[in-house]
Design brief:
Elements lengths: L7 E2 L2 E3 L40 E6 L8 E2 L5 E2 L1 H13 L2 E6 L5 H5 L9 E3 L13 E2 L5 E2 L1 E6 L17 E4 L3 H8 L7 E5 L2 H9 L5 E5 H10 L4 E3 L6
Parallel strand pairs: 3-6, 3-7, 11-12, 11-13
Antiparallel strand pairs: 1-9, 2-7, 2-8, 4-5, 10-13, 10-14
């Protein structure tokens, strides 16, 4: 069963516990629209890894901006790459990404020597305890859920302004969907057919929905990149 927490811990799932590089600087956090628990999944004990020499093969789902995207040469770039680049430098290991959908990646990594990759970096809602055969690193990003609206929207400035009959977009089977349900948004007003944040934001821009509930890190990314179209509810836009 997936966690019902409103916070998502975007966690590097490894068959070994790598030393995580830390940066004293922090990303600007968006105001959260719903309270969220602070209990995180604990890092777990080391497990043996059968990586090919010092090359760490990492599964990620891309394109999934701002976490994973492609540059003009097809290289995976984004937040995930920035994190693992620092981790690999600390650990003295090389790494490469394998692009694959998130579905089933944890089952794949748990099978031991028959697995297709050594680690997973993806936007997954994780259980408090890892499945057998998987170890968690320390969480490296904590996000809450926020409401996004069109930049010229005047009536929705917080989650409290969402009224019956207003349509709200959320990612399918996500923390945003859980938050929408907790806010009392009716299933008939909830559009949960989107698999990627970019699809969710596009639905808002196309006015398919009146508002969306999305994680704060992604919301800040889209607000910065589409300042004349969308904003975080309660913000002024840019």
């Amino acid at each position: 069963m997936k966690s019902r927490n409103a916070f998502i811990f975007l966690t590097l799932f490894l068959a070994l516990l790598l030393p995580v590089a830390c940066d004293d600087s922090k990303e600007p956090a968006a105001d959260e629209t719903a309270p969220a628990p602070t209990v995180a999944a604990a890092p777990t004990a080391d497990l043996p890894v059968d990586a090919d020499g010092d090359l760490l093969v990492i599964a990620t789902d891309a394109p999934l901006p701002p976490f994973a995207d492609f540059d003009p040469f097809g290289k995976v770039v984004g937040f995930n790459n920035a994190v693992i680049e620092r981790v690999a430098a600390r650990a003295g290991m090389a790494y490469e990404f394998v692009v694959t959908p998130s579905e089933g990646v944890l089952d794949n990594i748990a099978v031991g020597s028959a697995r297709d990759f050594d680690a997973v970096m993806s936007a997954l809602i994780i259980p408090e305890l890892p499945p057998p055969g998987i170890a968690f690193t320390h969480p490296y990003l904590e996000v809450g859920q926020v409401v996004m609206v069109l930049v010229d929207e005047k009536t929705i400035n917080s989650a409290a302004d969402i009224q019956p009959g207003m349509t709200v977009g959320v990612l399918a089977d996500s923390a945003g969907q859980d938050v929408a349900a907790a806010l009392g948004i009716a299933e008939t007003d909830m559009f949960a057919t989107y698999d990627k944040p970019s699809q969710l934001v596009q639905a808002l821009i196309d006015e398919v929905v009146d508002a969306i509930i999305i994680d704060s890190y992604a919301a800040d990314y889209f607000a910065r990149n589409f300042p004349e179209q969308v904003r975080i509810a309660g913000g002024e836009g840019r």
